[in-house]
Amino acid sequence: MKILIEWILRAVIVMVVAYYLPGFYVESFIGALSLVLVLGLLNMVLKPILHLFSLPITIMTLGLFSLVINGVILMLAIYLVPGVWAVSFGVALLASILISLLSVLVGVFKK
Asked: Tens digit of pLDDT for each residue in 29-46?
């Protein structure tokens, strides 16, 4: 039950970001749920591999390259989920930062 609530909360966060961020669009709540599911799967499978291969540049940028990896993962998820799109990579990068920050904020208040 806890996983289902977190899934719905993250979909609401995606909808809020899509509402306030120009250039990032989600057609429906089902699209947001699908995006959150695909993001979770990509973060579980692909993100560790990307972090491993980009470790030198991540160290050189003091960890800021991790934000770019988050943007790449979000762009890939947007490509895989119909009904969700971003105008550019910059918008997807900003959306991934906002989604992450709001998820942390909701996590703090949830406990």
From this structure: 999 999 999 999 999 999
